[in-house]
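Quick one: structure for this chain?
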Amino acid sequence: MILASRKDADHYTEKEVPHMAKVKYKYYDVQPFGSIAEMISLALEQCPQKIAYKYKENDEIKAMTYSEFINRVYSLGAFLEAEGFGDCNIACIGSNSVNWITAYFTAIRCSGAFVPLDRELPGKDIIHLINDSESKVVFCDERYEQLFAENADSLGGVKYFICFDRSEDDGKFLSFKKVLDAGAKLDKSAFLALKSDQNRTFLNERNARLHLGHDGNVKGRHAQRTQPCVERLLRLAGLDGL
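Got it. Here's what it folds into:
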């Protein structure tokens, strides 16, 4: 296998895939940045109308520009900051989706920590991790609402469960869409003033412990893959020196 290199004068890299033809990938010049906040601002400034994500909704492929996506992040962040959660730990569990990604970028743009939860963990371990991380807000798919409702007494520290699939609010269980709509009407300045630079998204010692069970053993595959994946993400983004 030929590893990626910048030897080609035209800034193409070659990658040989087994049983496939050799493929060339073009490099793009990327402006360096020093924080998540700066990265988001640069994307909004430099490529607002470029496609950020494509996703399927009701069997239809939809596209979202950087401007549209970042406005969602700012709306969600404005809601969280207005509710007093701008510097709190925020947990998230659910299938890969544009809503999950929105929650992720919003959380790391805040001043607290993002707590990704493994969907393969048993319910008792999910409850334990939410409590041990002291998460105040939990984003989730519909499939987890019953688990959280049945364990409401054990999750007293959680103020809101923001549900990706819910259309109406019900007590602590809020509709993700309604939260976005409410945030869109709020002033964004307080959220934008938050400092996200120190947010290492699960890389500090305390956050690493959140994936250990009561006996100190790693629970679930998520514990084994989260830290390396995030470290790689930060390296690719140039944030590993923060």
